[in-house]
Backbone:
């Protein structure tokens, strides 16, 4: 079985392809794939043999086929969209690509055609609000959520900006046959405090959803009602140590396939916050591991044995061994990758 790690370099217009040694966790550069237009978000179809990339400066979404032997990418097509795509995901059947548009105040649903290209016009172009940061479909393929952060363009390298965001989670029903999103009731779930929900992930077996809070520097857990597709809050837990008062924001979030560990990067504190997950789905802090400056992107490998964190201010990628018992991270090696790494994606065959 081959495993590969992809790193999008937004300021260098390319995607780096690494081979992963599943025994040692070491990475070997396989190739560099041109991707003009500032590649950022990456996602795969359910089979993992197609990668979709957002091109944020050219307002496009590109499709690539994956060589399962080498990890290399072959362009399929590109489509133009009406705003800069910030986040991408496919539905659970691989029939539609859903996208969040941060500055564009919209979410879009794009039909995936039989050759894995995207249809030129979206199935749906739905207005939400500024700061729409991500979108994912639940295990049942019936519900989705769009978190909106609490402060706009909150670059941790500068002072907090004045423009505030909606600080809310939009709730939608998803029709897996037509691709249509319809507002759930209620449409908006207000945050309990200045949290700024940004990215999220689903527990693999429990009806629980975990959100990283960009401004709140925390993770919030919500109960997902399977009969209605609405959320109710369970827990909010900090990603930074007690007493930390420095400038910090959180970025992405990932959970292991077994649902036992969860990670969130701290941008400013410059660490990976780890959590163990109890049998009831609640989180317990496993501490913080130092990492690269401004870790905007990271990924676990598909086995959950290794974690790779990219520093958008350091232009490096740090590789860690994951302790399956405690969630602790042990630094293995650091790789120079290039300017502004904005997504790390791991796939296996």
Residues:
């Amino acid at each position: 079985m081959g495993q590969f790690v992809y790193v999008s370099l937004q300021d260098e217009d390319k995607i780096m392809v690494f081979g992963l040694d599943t025994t040692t966790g070491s990475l070997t550069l396989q190739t560099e794939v041109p991707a003009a237009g500032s590649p950022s978000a990456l996602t795969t179809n359910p089979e993992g043999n197609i990668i979709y990339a957002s091109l944020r400066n050219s307002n496009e979404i590109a499709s690539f086929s994956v060589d399962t032997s080498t990890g290399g990418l072959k362009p399929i097509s590109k489509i133009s969209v009406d705003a800069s795509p910030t986040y991408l995901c496919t539905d659970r059947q691989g029939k539609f690509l859903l996208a969040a548009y941060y500055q564009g105040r919209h979410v879009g649903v794009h039909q995936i055609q039989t050759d894995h290209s995207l249809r030129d016009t979206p199935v749906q172009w739905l207005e939400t609000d500024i700061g729409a940061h991500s979108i994912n479909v639940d295990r049942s393929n019936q519900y989705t959520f769009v978190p909106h952060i609490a402060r706009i363009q909150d670059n941790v390298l500068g002072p907090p900006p004045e423009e505030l965001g909606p600080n809310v989670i939009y709730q939608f029903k998803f029709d897996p046959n037509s691709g249509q999103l319809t507002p759930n009731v209620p449409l908006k779930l207000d945050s309990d405090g200045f949290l700024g929900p940004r990215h999220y992930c689903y527990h693999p077996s429990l009806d629980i959803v975990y959100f990283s809070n960009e401004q709140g520097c925390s993770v919030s857990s919500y109960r997902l009602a399977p009969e209605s597709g609405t959320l109710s809050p369970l827990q909010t837990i900090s990603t930074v140590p007690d007493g930390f008062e420095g400038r910090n924001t959180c970025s992405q979030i990932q959970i292991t396939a077994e649902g036992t560990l969860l990670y969130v990067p701290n941008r400013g504190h410059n660490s990976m916050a780890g959590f163990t997950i109890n049998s009831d789905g609640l989180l317990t802090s496993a501490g913080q591991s130092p990492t690269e400056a401004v870790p905007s992107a990271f990924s676990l490998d598909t086995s959950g044995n290794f974690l790779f964190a990219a520093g958008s201010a350091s232009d490096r990628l740090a590789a860690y061994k994951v302790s399956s018992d405690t969630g602790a991270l042990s630094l293995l090696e650091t790789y120079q990758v290039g300017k502004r790494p904005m997504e790390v994606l791991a796939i296996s065959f």
The domain at 3-348 is CATH 2.130.10.10 (Methylamine Dehydrogenase; Chain H). The first strand starts at residue 3 and ends at 9. The chain has a mean pLDDT of 97. The chain has one domain: 3-348.
